[in-house]
């Protein structure tokens, strides 16, 4: 398969992906984003910065992460061959660390001594606290008070790593409110603080910068797949909350026109129930957290409360580049419900000896639906974005088990 | 001339400064807002900023956040806010009303429908916190075409170049955000605010209002030594918080009357 030359060089200078993206922030932050844009461009152009980033990914994160052929599970499903990109094997247990290493290095370059982050399940908070410890920076993590209760182990991990965890009591007390509060901190302490956003959302240049740091996932796959499977996959499948793991694996594949890109959103208890987090499938365009994108909202434009069994997908928006990939037809977005994700979670445990994150289990569940419809010579590549240790309590509870 | 322009012109002639209070529409319940607006006028307010409740008020401090949450409990949305202004206009055709809020409720309604409805309701200006000038050129042009002003914000972090470009596009007045932070935060550094207001005046002929952090008559008066308007939000909301729905208009009136008196002292 040959790489196709597509005219794809988004975002434009103002951060737009078609009608999406942009910079929708209060005036106080405009200058900070200008500075970040310039600093980030300087870092990207600096071979020493890029060499250090690669060194950190190799020796600190443990990259490259392997691609693994889930032979037994594929055989049981009876169709296409499923390959897993093992981001769960990274330091701290998910893809999140690729981005936090990059942003911490940009923060250091800008001379910022204090970093802040928002977190839902706690994975991005842990990854931020980790790099803050690594680079000797103060770290404050904002986390919805509901999530603090649900993810006690990750809260403790962040504290062990020296971070301050601030529970957020406003709004729905979840990820979106943590993001609001982090923005408020940033607007107040903008002079000395660097905001490490955890996903491909927020005002420009964040969606582009986070994507660039996460693209290592897809770039490795493009090198690994010919050796592992003899060719590039027929489809790449990844879960989408904000969408950073999906963008990281999709983006390098955009020019490969024959490779289908499939994003899997969380349908929670079913799209009809209203308790879901499927922004592209069931939302409409609007403005939140600094960018224009698909949002789950009511008729008055109020952001709706979302639900997913996976805290990392429990977000009412989605990265603006996903919105654009959807509208342009380059990627497709589908949904998986809580129960289907749980089934895939258990199947991967049983048949492959891998405990996946509940987020990644959504991508796995869609692969399990698609594989039997395809012949055995087809290849599906699933981004196994994180490990499931953090989800023990949630899965046990769903099975009626108490520790 | 727009109602906003007329009011500033009248104030200039008498050597007075504008008092612009803010209230979140629908806080703590929908019926309170119109009486509060009239009470504000009775207390000597020159124009009023009416906040449109939004589920994710990123630029607001805890006081205005909570007022929005109270309003949202009754489901107060942009259409309801416009209805309140229509009702207010049946008794007051003189006082400019400026809507203040976030972009998403406006986009959810549709920008052209919003502009039409706002114009019919008697809105004079619009502040959209998360619409920087370069992201809303069409919207501000449409507002102006319909006789309304797009009020832009400038901040301590705005560069000279940016002050210049925003000042060029601004109409009505410029809202200078007096500090780095959210609404209702901290203490003002008056010297710093004065320096920045002067920076804006150097490149713009339109009035400059100062908001964020004005807590009482004394700060309002100090601000008005160099600015054209004092904008007070969180402190007004606290009066409403401490009152019952029935006593809120009187409490707001008493507070703003004091501020007005302090602003007019020694003139």
What is the structure about, briefly put?
Chain A has 403 residues and is of the alpha/beta class.
Descriptive overview:
The complex is a heterodimer of chains A (403) and B (267). Chain A has 403 residues and is an alpha/beta fold. Chain A is 43% helix and 19% strand. Chain A is built from 16 helices and 14 strands. In chain A, β9, α11 and β10 form a beta-alpha-beta unit. In chain A, α9 (206-214) packs across α11. The N and C termini of chain A lie far apart (50 Å). Chain B has a single domain, classed as Aldolase class I (TIM Barrel). Chain B has twelve helices and nine strands. In chain B, α10 (217-223) links the parallel β8 and β9. In chain B, α2 crosses α4 and α2 packs parallel to α12. The model of chain B has no long low-confidence stretch (mean pLDDT 95). Chain A binds chain B through residues 14, 22-32, 34, 170-171, 176-177, 180, 183-184, 187-191, 284-290, 295, 297, 299-303, and chain B through 53-62, 65, 69, 72, 75, 77-79, 102-109, 129-132, 134-135, 152-159, 162, 166, 177, 180-182, 185.
Keywords:
heterodimer; A: 403 residues; alpha/beta; 16 helices; 19% strand; B: 267 residues; nine-stranded parallel sheet; 12 helices
Taking the sheet with the most strands of chain B, its summary is:
9 strands, parallel
The largest sheet of chain A, given as strand count, sense and whether it forms a barrel, is: 6 strands, mixed
Structural class by sheet pairing and helices of chain B = alpha/beta
Using only C-alpha atoms, the radius of gyration of chain B works out to: 17 Å
Q: Structural class of the secondary structure composition of chain A?
A: alpha/beta
Strand sequence of the main sheet of chain A, in spatial order?
A: 3-4-14-9-10-13
Order of helices and strands of chain B: HEHEHHEHHEHEEHEHEHEHH
Outline of chain B: globular
Strands in their spatial order, largest beta sheet of chain B: 5-4-3-2-1-9-8-7-6
- Quantity of strands of chain A, as a count: 14
Counting DSSP H or I runs of 4 or more residues, the number of helices of chain B is 12
**Helix share bin of chain B:** 40-55%
What is the helix tally of chain A?
Answer: 16
**Low-confidence region ranges of chain A:** 1-5
Give the name of the CATH architecture of chain B.
Alpha-Beta Barrel
| Element string of chain A (H = helix, E = strand) | EEHHEHEHEHEHHEHEHHEHEHEEHEHHEH
Roughly what is the average pLDDT of chain B, rounded to an integer? 95
Low-confidence stretches of chain B: none
Terminal CA distance of chain B reads 27 Å
Q: Number of DSSP strands of chain B?
A: 9
Percent of residues of chain A in helical segments?
40-55%
